[in-house]
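Translate sequence into structure tokens.
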Amino acid sequence: MRTVPAFDTALSHCSPDMAPSTFSTTNFNPARIKLRPSDEDHNEIRTVPELIDFNAKHNADQIFCVQATKETQDMPQAKPVAITHIQLKRAILRCSKRLCEEIAELKQPYKNDEGRIVKCQPVALFVESDVGLLIHLFALMSLGVPVSFSSRLRRL
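Result follows.
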């Protein structure tokens, strides 16, 4: 099994001083989610990557989540960091790029000579339970890579 170091720099541009009240929480534009395809409306959201794209475009400055920073010697008390939808999208793009650069076997789905869709092998995620897990998960999903992870994994 191949391992890749955690992508801690995905949110390196987010300052710990960005309190949730810094961002607008009004005028949220909800997506039209339809899990079954229809020919009537091409603006329907059917996948998580489509929802992320929609929110990055239409709700860019809205808060996606608030993540507590890790305690360090320089910062002995965890502080909240608000992450907007556009920051999430940018972190996913950086993570996707880095994963493709570091894992040669990672390939987007393609059609082989017989017309069948071929996907790469599933990837297992072993990361801490913070927004970094979601960034990696969404990055792999956006690349069309099957992902396997377990919430029952224990910290080593």
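Note: Helices lie at 48-58, 85-102, 131-142.
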